[in-house]
Specification:
Elements: E1 2-5, E2 8-11, H1 18-21, H2 25-28, H3 37-40, H4 45-79, H5 90-98
Antiparallel strand pairs: 1-2
Amino acid sequence: VRGHTLGRTEQVYPAFEPHASGLTGVEAFTLDYKVEWPVSLVVSPKSIIRYQLLFRHLFHCKHVERQLCAVWQAHKQAKWEPIYTTKWHAAAFCLRQRM
């Protein structure tokens, strides 16, 4: 299956089941681009692989950032709750203070 966007051809692959291989959606997510003739003189398959690896790394960093922000917000909110409801947070709060 191919999709056309502004004169470029993008390769779209059939659905991949990440749970069959033990991967999560974030780990299995990738982009692929098929470069056609005039641009293929400048953009090599090796450079596309490098861009894919860079994209994957940045995508994973963004995912980790979002998870850290969510945990931080949960800890900030739990800080204002009564102490008897947040006893299970005590170890996490102590660890965060030591960091």
